[in-house]
Amino acid sequence: MRDARFALMVTVPVALFLIAWVVYPIGYSFWLSVHSFKIRGGQVGPFFAGFDNYIQALSDPDVQNAFVNTVQLDLEGIFLTTGLALGIALVLNEVIPGGSFLKVLALLPWAVSDFGTGVVWKWIWIGGFGFMNGVLIRLGLATGSTNLITTDTAIHFVAIADAWHLAPLGAFFILASLSVIPQDLYNQAKIDGAGALTRFRRVTLPLINYSLLITLVIATLFISTTLDEVLTLTGGGPGDSSQTLTYQIYLQTFVLFKLGYGAAISYLTLGYIIIFATIWFLLLMRRH
User: Fold this and answer.
1) pLDDT in tens, 49-70
2) Which of the chain's termini has less CB crowding within 10 Å, N or C?
3) Are residues 44 and 251 in contact, defined by beta-carbon separation less than 8 angstroms?
4) CA pair distance 282, 136, nearest whole angstrom
5) What's the CA gap between 263 and 96, in Å, rounded?
6) CB-based burial of residue 130 (10 Å sphere; 0-12 exposed, 13-18 middle, 19+ buried)?
7) Alpha carbons 69 and 75: distance in angstroms, whole number
């Protein structure tokens, strides 16, 4: 009886916390998504709209453009993040002088906030007095202010900023797997005449697949929902070239105050993320 009371005392607060912190916001946002707040008959909603907001969002050219930009950002950012994470992990796994200091240094980009990441990379790419503009002038490739953030490059620069920010986190997941691979496996591979590339492909890669796929999933979740980097680095522009689904959610909800429409876009974005992340989980389960 005493154990049951103790379990109840622990469970009830946790359940109430989850309801307040998770269930209520999700439920309320869905309620918003099926309502409109337009003026009707001299009154401002909410008026029940069914799935009109979802239908409108699916046929909205701005949302469609944002979806294409989001897919492009994800594909570039996810694989760039994973590649950088793998490279950092392989370097940090080697026994080199100052290895502990390098690990701390490698983690710093992850410690920078999303907002800070956007600001840092804006100062790198911005024309006139940006770092890369100065480099181009020094190399004689530019004579003055060069606008590097264009409609063709904006989404690529956001992907680079996201990868710089997220790669250290993935690197430490991969490094944890690398550190437990028995050295005997490499020694045996060397005896069998396997070169460095063969050892990586036959020994290292199969044993870090799990960490690589976890990195892919985490990168998918973070990059698909990135907003601060877009706002601070490109502002969604030039034009609409770097507007993503999360940017559309922000624009519709907090700028245009279309609460129901913004909520509907957010649920469509959630469905997209679930599908994308499920693909990685299926690959993970297939490999393990």
Assistant:
1) 888 899 999 999 999 999 999 9
2) N
3) no
4) 45
5) 50
6) buried
7) 10
In sequence order, the 6+-apart residues with CB closer than 8 A to the CB of 171 are 84, 85, 86, 88, 89, 92, 106
Distances (CA, A) of 74 to 70, 156, 162, 225, 251: 6, 10, 10, 10, 20
| Non-local CB neighbours of 252 within 8 Å, separated by 6+ positions | 258, 261, 262, 265
**Cα of 271 vs its chain's centroid, Å:** 15
Q: What is the rounded CA–CA span in Å between residue 21 and residue 25? A: 7
Report the run of H or E that residue 206 belongs to, with start and end: helix 205-224
Residue among 106, 98, 74 at smallest CA distance from 170: 106
Contact at 8 Å (CB) between 2 and 228? no
- Asked whether the bond before 238 is cis by omega within 30 degrees of 0, the reply is yes
pLDDT tens over the chain, length 288 residues:
555 565 555 566 766 666 666 778 888 888 888 888 765 555 666 778 888 899 999 999 999 999 999 999 999 999 899 999 999 988 888 767 766 778 788 888 888 888 999 998 988 888 777 788 888 888 877 777 777 888 888 999 999 999 999 999 999 888 888 888 777 777 777 776 777 777 777 777 877 888 888 888 889 889 998 999 999 998 888 888 899 999 999 999 888 888 889 999 999 998 998 888 888 777 766 655
Q: Which of 166, 181, 250 is nearest to 215 (CA)?
A: 166
